[in-house]
Amino acid sequence: MTAVVTFNNVTFKPGEDALLNDVSFEIGQNEMIRIEGPSGSGKSTLLKLISSLIPRTSGDILFEGKTIEEVGYQDYRKAVSYVAQNPHLFGQTIRDNFELVFAAHETDFDEAQVLNFMNQFGLSHIELDKSIHKISGGEKQRVGLIRHLLFPPKVLLLDEITSSLDEENRNRVWEILLEYKKQHKVTILWVSHIEDNEIFPDRIFKINNRALTIEKGEAND
Ligand SMILES: Nc1ncnc2c1ncn2[C@@H]1O[C@H](COP(=O)(O)OP(=O)(O)OP(=O)(O)O)[C@@H](O)[C@H]1O
Ligand SMILES: [Mg+2]
């Protein structure tokens, strides 16, 4: 297994107590990993640490064998992309959100590509110039997700991204994600409280009492 991301003895201790203590693992290219643990156990914290949205207290994070400092935090976060449950949309319109992503990648805005994703995700009824304040929670989740798919990352960290969706749309999102994964060889780590019927992980990361245990997933049974 070629490791994309490596955690060496990473601890996150925001106050008196460690939230995650001395965690080590390697994440391989093209892997599917489900994160499990009770509410408040630190699943979101783990994903945010992996994407380096919050700073570790100690330990090392490597990307393809280089330290995160060598890679640079901005480039690292583009490659290891965290998709939040309740994404914060920017600016005034849906278009603003996509334009910002292209600008961050110093690339011209590709409206056709954006509209293609909007179509696939069942959002063709939404004009790009619609106000971000006038879309539903489930629509917002999908716009938030598309932002992370426009430039394929190496690792996608999905934090309960289908929580506001009905079954049909949930299935549709996973169908697109699995096809996308096949095409771009993306590693996926995901947290979900809802049964993802047909989504089988290679490994399961279980968080309990500040520690992480790793189990083989259903994909290998
Ligand atoms: N930056 C932080 N500083 C201090 N405490 C934090 C920080 N972030 C999260 N916490 C606390 O850490 C614990 C884990 O939070 P986290 O959001 O990671 O849990 P979770 O497993 O994702 O829960 P849920 O299933 O409810 O989303 C919680 O008790 C939370 O209040
Ligand atoms: Mg969470």
How would you sum up this structure in a few lines?
The chain has helices at residues 43-50, 68-71, 73-79, 94-104, 111-120, 137-149, 167-184, and strands at residues 3-12, 20-28, 32-36, 58-63, 66-67, 80-83, 155-159, 187-191, 203-208, 211-216. The chain is of the alpha/beta class and 221 residues long. The longest helix is centred in the last third of the chain and has 18 residues, at 167-184.
Descriptive report:
This is ATP-binding cassette domain-containing protein. The chain is α/β, with parallel strands linked by helices and 221 residues long. The protein has a single domain (3-220), classed as P-loop containing nucleotide triphosphate hydrolases (Rossmann fold), CATH 3.40.50.300. Helices cover 32% and strands 26% of the residues. The chain has helices spanning 43-50, 68-71, 73-79, 94-104, 111-120, 137-149, 167-184, and strands spanning 3-12, 20-28, 32-36, 58-63, 66-67, 80-83, 155-159, 187-191, 203-208, 211-216. Strands 6-7-8-3-9-10 form a 6-stranded mixed beta sheet, sandwiched between helices. The protein has a 4-stranded antiparallel beta sheet with strand order 2-1-4-5. Strand 9 (203-208) and strand 10 form a beta hairpin. It is globular. The model has no long low-confidence stretch (mean pLDDT 94). Bound molecules: adenosine-5'-triphosphate and magnesium ion. Magnesium ion (MG) binds at residues 43-44, 159.
